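Action item from last meeting closed. Structure (344 res):
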């Protein structure tokens, strides 16, 4: 390791050779490494325990100034070249002087729980991990996975803690995008059936807990089969996507929209009564009547919709029951001649 660190001086020549080997491994490691001194923090934790503090995490979290103290008591001793690159530091000297700037100002608690986990480790298993947010010295935000290991040759408790850091920003972005894609209907970019029902269940529970109004709408595009038969499925897909855009335009951001399948859509309107929901659908129907959803070389395609509306009432204990009530109203609208809204 670093020859300037007094704790690393060796009187035994064989230990000196090992130190040189360690230093080479530190520099050539394929991961970002930092050598830190947490001994002052260890002393603080010891003192708190002696004072009878049982929940160290709660002690620090109860006062932001105490929380900041955690990192004030950690000293960075050394970083390898990969750490300099990751944190966009010009030199090790700059990194040592400014490393506290890499800590997310609103997430020091991530690292507090890490320290407490380290404190609770058995002496023969002093290794912990956590995910947090860090910044480079140039201000670049990074999601980072940290692994800390207390080195067994530390001259005092926590005086030599080796930390590896992995920038997982891109990995998390891919995971988040995959989660998003699993929840949307790819043609319309609305929630798919599964996602709509899951989110609707949350809204239903909230409305029942606070006795708030909640309205659900089932929408069917009238005679949509004719669009596919006359113009082809590729035009039909464009019509569905265009309708979804008009639907989003007519509702609020807090409203939940979804494509349940085929030409059937659903909208959940929190804190909305039947009259207000009817106004929303009338605006949508007016917009559809005034402008085509799609135009081909020879034709402009206008849509009409049939809508079934249901308002939350006693006895509705699930999203499925709520949808069933709206679906019955939708069936009534279609059987009554379409291009209308019926309330269940």
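Sequence:
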């Amino acid at each position: 390791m670093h020859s300037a660190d007094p704790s690393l001086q060796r009187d035994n020549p064989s230990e000196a050779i090992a130190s040189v080997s360690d230093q080479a491994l530190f520099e050539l490691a394929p991961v970002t490494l930092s050598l830190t001194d947490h001994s002052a923090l260890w002393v603080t934790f010891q003192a708190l325990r002696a004072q009878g503090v049982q929940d160290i995490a709660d002690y620090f979290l109860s006062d932001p100034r105490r929380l900041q103290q955690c990192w004030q008591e950690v000293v960075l001793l050394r970083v390898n070249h990969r750490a300099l690159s990751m944190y966009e530091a010009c030199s090790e000297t700059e990194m040592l002087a400014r490393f506290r700037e890499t800590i997310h100002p609103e997430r020091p608690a991530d690292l507090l729980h890490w320290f407490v986990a380290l404190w609770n480790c058995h002496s023969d298993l002093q290794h912990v991990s956590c995910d947090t947010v860090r910044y480079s010295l140039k201000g670049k935000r990074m999601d980072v996975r940290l692994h800390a290991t207390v080195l067994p040759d530390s001259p005092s408790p926590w005086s030599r803690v080796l930390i590896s850091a992995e920038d997982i920003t891109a990995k998390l972005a891919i995971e988040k995008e995959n989660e998003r894609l699993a929840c949307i209907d790819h043609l319309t970019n609305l929630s798919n059936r599964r996602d709509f029902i899951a989110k609707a269940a949350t809204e239903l529970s909230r409305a029942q807990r606070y006795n708030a109004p909640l309205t659900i709408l089932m929408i069917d595009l009238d005679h949509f089969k004719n669009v596919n038969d006359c113009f082809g499925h590729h035009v039909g897909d464009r019509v569905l996507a265009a309708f979804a855009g008009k639907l989003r335009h007519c509702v609020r951001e807090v409203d939940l929209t979804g494509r349940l399948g085929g030409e059937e859509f659903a909208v959940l309107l929190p804190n909305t009564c039947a009259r207000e929901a009817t106004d929303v659908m009338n605006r949508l129907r007016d917009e559809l009547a005034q402008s085509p959803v799609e135009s081909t070389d020879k034709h402009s395609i206008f849509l009409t919709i049939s809508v079934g509306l249901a308002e939350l009432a006693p006895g509705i204990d699930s999203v499925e029951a709520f949808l069933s009530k709206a679906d019955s109203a939708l069936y009534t609208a279609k059987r009554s001649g379409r291009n209308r809204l019926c309330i269940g």
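Note appended to the action item: The chain has two domains: 6-174, 184-343.
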